[in-house]
Amino acid sequence: MKLVIGIVRPEKANDVLEALYRAHVRGFSLSRVQGHGGELDRVETYRGTTVKMGLSDKVRFEIAVSDPFVQPAIDALCEGGRTGEVGDGKIFVVPLERVVRIRTGETGHGAVTPVGS
Amino acid sequence: MTDVPSLAAAAQVNAGDTAWMLAATALVLMMTPALGLFYAGLVRSKNTLNTFMMCIAAIAVAGVTWALVGYSLAFDGDGDLIGGLGHAFLNDVTFEPRDGTTIPHLVFFAFQATFCIITTALVSGAVVERMRFGAFLVFAALWSVLVYAVLAHWAFGGGWLIEGGTRDFAGGVPVEMGSGFSALAAALVVGARKDYGRQALLPHNAVYVLIGAGLLWFGWFGFNGGSGFSTGNSSVLAFTNTLLCPACTLVVWFALDLIRGRQVTAIGAATAIIVGCVGITPAGGYISPGWAMVLGALVALPSYAVIVWRPRTRVDETLDVLAAHGIAGFTGILFIGFFAEMSWNGVADGLFYGDAGQLGSQLVAAVAAPAYAFAMTYALLKLIGAVTPLRGSDHEEAVGMDIIHHGEEAYATGEGAILVSTETHVTEDRPVAQPV
Predict the structure, then answer these.
(1) What is the extent of the structural domain holding B365?
(2) What is the pLDDT of residues B197-206, one digit of tens each?
(3) What number is the ipTM of this complex?
């Protein structure tokens, strides 16, 4: 089991959702985050104050999957999130020690497999 | 209203009328930022400022074009299709009473200016979230003259519609049908947003929408109540009808919402307020309060139908200006033809009270105004589009109009913002700004 963490552009989040759905990856969490990954800063001006916005809005997917679904999840994140410009984001894959489904107490593979799939 | 125009020179400025018209003008001007709030709530958060700014831009652009030529083309002389240039650059617009009124010409001009401004702002609802801001400025300038001023002349300024007997109290022709059918043309020429029909594009702040609708209704008392240019009967009638008609629209809209989705929606309610106010706009000073309540109930039906039907089409007329203004204005204009009542308005009866001819005059306006607005706007945008792109790239649309066109965000947190320039000296060890 792996935890696949994908950080993508907010405007590509819907494309990623679509790609994940097509890849039959149905369980995930999503949060709005801010970060910096080497992209060009954008300059904004508020009255007399000009600022460089060092942090960009991103969307962070956290997807806990059994081993056969690791590559499909990565492919979906890449396919849905890519624009080709700097700032498309990153994917981190980390090992998962334990997973527990709170409702049933199931652990392991059963817990990362969404109900009904 | 003076019965004998030759005695117009004897007309005096009336203090009470002028006081009310000054207040009414301010009320109508407030409707444009209110519309900005209403529209801004209906779009996604990344386009909040741009959407609001299109309304602010209408004040800037249409306010200027109106003073330069628009007012003159609408209200100078009684040419069939278009007015003259006698009042261009505010020539001869002074403290003397405007013909046919008891208010200074300057106040009349300012009151009419606020109408041109809000109508120009209304059209932006069709093209938000993708039209380039620069292209919109050009469009607004030309539209306010070529479409609004022409329709205002037809309906108010001595053009062929008013001379032919069409009754339009506060702007069913130039404001409501003018903006609604122009919006349809604009949506067709500019094209749909890239994600339209593929993703759910939801309103980002329903509270803005409700506050905006509330402020619009408030301003509408000046809009309709001021369109008698006095404190006389027609103004009083229109004022009270502006209270009653939208209230009935709300009730019917609630019922339609319940039938369709088993819940009464907030954004539906905000829309109902607009639809009711639009419906009573042309009819306000011509129908009895009882008929105004009937109109309020009736006007909900066609607008509701179009609002349900339109998103299922390929036409991304984004904020439903056609349904809320075009269709509701159309309903109100026709309603006069049936239920205008001489005993209330002193000038015209509708079919129901014995004058079938009035319905004919209303029908002419209900066909001519939409046709002109649609055709002219379509041609105008095609022309502008041939000179400068009407919309940006898909990437710009994805990032959002606020950052692309204004370099600002509606909801900037300031976290991680690095100060680039300021009037005070900034040392290297304090690089992170805390914007106000």
Answers:
(1) 5-396
(2) 888 899 999 9
(3) 0.77
